Amino acid sequence: MDKNIPLPGSFYKDPDGNILQIICIAKNYKDKGMEVVYQKMSPPFDIWEEPLESFTGEIFNNKNWQKYMPCQAGTTGITANAGITEGNSIPAKEGIVTETEDACISSNVFREALLNGTIDRKIAGKIPDSEIAEKGFMEMLDARTYHEKYIIFTSLRKYLDKRLLNNIAVALDIVLEDGSEEEQYDSILHCLQTFEHYETQRLR
Question: First and final CA of the chain: distance in angstroms?
Fold first, then answer.
């Protein structure tokens, strides 16, 4: 498969900054064109379809679709335009970390800071708070145990807004009641504590 084609399960950010998850690549019955089927990770969690070219950059390149990519040596930040291959550079844009000696925070360093509770000391100030929140959200989705999810969630407390709290609740299959950010955060935290407890009991 073409490496520029979005993979099912991968996450993108649309031109308005909303996070979405790829469901599948489908073929249009009428013209046989390829379509990307995705779900927005914010209420009401609608499922949409978009021409594949929107993601590969062949057309609609003014939309600036973005996909999440690990920040590695030789790349230019935590997110990069869809279709950019590893090792390539992109022009610096506002809000995107550019390639410098200190700006590129590797996924391993970021994850270690999350799990050690040292985000404020080791990462804050090197990349925007919004990037910390969004990359932290991705790391939380990738965490293998509820114990790790719990630690990451607590490390991100000051960086999460209502949109990301709703995204996290959807990913964990939690129904959030209306309330303040603090109340919704505490609700998710309590659920994670419960999940972690039963996970620990099951593994004994």
Answer: 42
Residues of the chain with pLDDT > 70: what percent? 72
Dihedrals phi, psi of 175, to nearest 5 degrees: -95, 115
99-114 b/e with 16+ CB inside 10 Å = b? Answer: eeeeebbebeebbebb
Rounded Cα–Cα distance for residues 194 and 106 (Å): 31
124: β partners: 127
Which candidate, 170, 196, 174, 199, places its Cα nearest to that of 187? 174
- The 10s digit of each residue's pLDDT in 115-149 is 999 999 888 888 888 889 888 988 888 888 999 99
Q: Determine the 3-state secondary structure of 67 from DSSP.
A: strand
Q: Is the peptide bond before 15 cis (omega within 30 degrees of 0)?
A: no
Q: How many helices (H) and strands (E) does the chain have?
A: 7, 6
Q: Give the phi and the psi of residue 86 in degrees, each rounded to 5.
A: -60, 135
CA-CA distance, 95 to 97, in Å (whole number)? Answer: 7
- Tokens matching residue 40: 């927005």
- The label of the residue with tokens 């925070």 reads 105
Q: The tokens 């084609």 sit on which residue? A: 5
